[in-house]
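To assess whether the prediction recovers the assembly geometry, we first specified each molecular entity separately, as shown.
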Amino acid sequence: MNFLKRAFWSMKAKKGKTLLQLVIFTVICVFVLSGLTIQSAAKASSELARQELGGSVTLQVDREAAMEKQQSEQSESDGPPQFTSTPISLDDAESIAALDHVMSYNYSVSASANAEDFDIIESSTSTDSSDTESEQAPGSDQGRGGIVQADLTVNGTLTSDEAESFSDGEAEIVDGRGIEESDADSNVAVIEQTLAEENDLAVGDTINISSASDEDTTQELEIVGIYETSSAGSDQAMNFSFLNPYNTIYVPYTAANTLKGEDYTDTIESVTYQMDDAENIDAFIAAAEKTDVDFDVYQLDANDDLYQQMVGPIENVASFAKNIVYLVTIAGAIILALIVMLSIRERKYEMGVLMAIGEKKWKLAGQFITEIVVIAIVAVGLSSIFGNPIANVLGNQLLDQQTTASAETTTTSLQQGSRGGGMMSGGGPGQAVSDAFSQPSEAISSLNINVTWENILILGGIGLAVAIIAALIPSISILRLQPKNILTKQE
Amino acid sequence: MTAPLLAFKNVGYWYTDKQNPLFQSVNIDFHKNTFYTITGTSGSGKTTFLSLAGGLDKAKEGDIEYDGKSIRKMGLGNFRHDYVSIIFQSYNLIPYMTAYQNIASAMAITGKKVENQEDYILKMLAKVGISEEQAKQRVLTLSGGQQQRVAITRAFCCDTDLIVADEPTGNLDDKTSKEIVKLFTDLAHQENKCVIMVTHDPQIAAQSDVTIQLSNGSFRMLQHV
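The predicted structure of the complete assembly is given in tokenized form:
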């Protein structure tokens, strides 16, 4: 393998040129390795975040479609606008719950009630309901009963642990237990600690409540648990008792349905399906849309705001890193090809001499490729040393920029959202959005960047390809020449 | 008469116009143990003739045979690789290599193997007046005469029967030229080689065994006694 020896002699004799090529190749390799490392770190972080967060999908009434339908009906009849909510049947909810990727699910039914034998926590500026502008109590139905005032918000659930306030950590059981699946059809409740203390209530006691829309519908509920909330409530809670977080009680969804009336038996307002992995949300929605559930009336909303917020900046960084890899690889290959091309053109004479002696053309190309591949190997080695700290600085700086930009966008959106949204829904999709906005600090703010063997192997592959292309393209044009032409022109 | 080492058989050559050939129907035999010189005016086709003999170019018509085999059929690259050594006026050494490395590379390319290669090369270089110290210097640091000696040693070390040289003394002073010509003569007679050399110098031509004069496409052979 004489050409290997010649390659070595050539590199040794032309130290300056070899060093220049090595510096250029090392810079290219460092950038490519940084890009690859940032990409894999970002992927690992977002996968971790995804596994930790899961993600959920909520089945609920498509309010927009319902409103449009009512508006069109209104234009035909001159009556006032009416909103009719169609509850979801348990059968529909369970048919979707049986699909793949559902880790768990929870029902949600909102109702409003008045306290019969205990005092609610009054708001500081609580006023007579007739003096204030009306606020719709949760679960009240504009289309049927008009605007109703109530003392309590009653949240019907399958398991309270998976209710949003509890799963977010805003509410926590401090005595007794939460609502469980086996509590369906039972008259049990979980009440807030302040309400319990105000009324000297404890686990095992009973309370009586009546439906806000029908005073004749009353329920006796056994307290099975007491929870504590950290929620400050909304500004509107100053005027409306049922918005006060202390006046929220959790009951089985069946009990909430009883308060709402016979029409609501075996129905729910919404179901939240917890996914095994946020990545499967799209596949789950696609499968759900193939079931018999009427998606003209209902819709599935992916509640992956928190996941998106966490991984958004990191995905931007990963995408940027990917572009760096492409850009640097292509630009690097072009720059190196040009340098090698110039260098090989200078060595036309040498090629003519070697061909005149009888050297095979592939061995000449082999010599040039060997020279650049040796440089590539050294450059990959050097970049694996320098790549890690550079990738760390670069990756985390990029992530900082992205996180700051993301936080600014979130704050702006939140401000706009709070200015625009006067109506409180007391739960549902709006709350999920505000929860996501309330936790901007959850975004992944640093990357654990480490150069792995896999990164180095990929870099080696890219480096080798760049080296071979950079040496081969200019070699081809020169190797087409005949030694006589080269040597004659030289002379 | 022994069979020729190299034989031109009805060889014709032209650049672009077949009607205006450089030469046509050339039939010349070259034998071992003979030192040939080719002379002629500028543009007469001496170098082209030598390129054909050295396998650097193809004849446009006719054939050139080496030891009875068509060099066209064996491939010019293979012919150069196996059977011929070429020496140029401008030495054509690889500039970034030492004298020793130039010769070692050529031996590796042509597959010439000897025991203790370094000693062999240094000994051969010493024979032409290149010291060990000079042998390990980059060739560009050597004088023109020394570089040409290295080029001749390269051809000698490759140990081919056919050696073609294109005005190897063109850039050298008289004294050095004489020494170089002596080397070629010795190569032909002592090492039983066929040496074909292009030269402008009639004195050098007179020292060869046979001179081939090119003029307007015709060849005239002069046998020196």
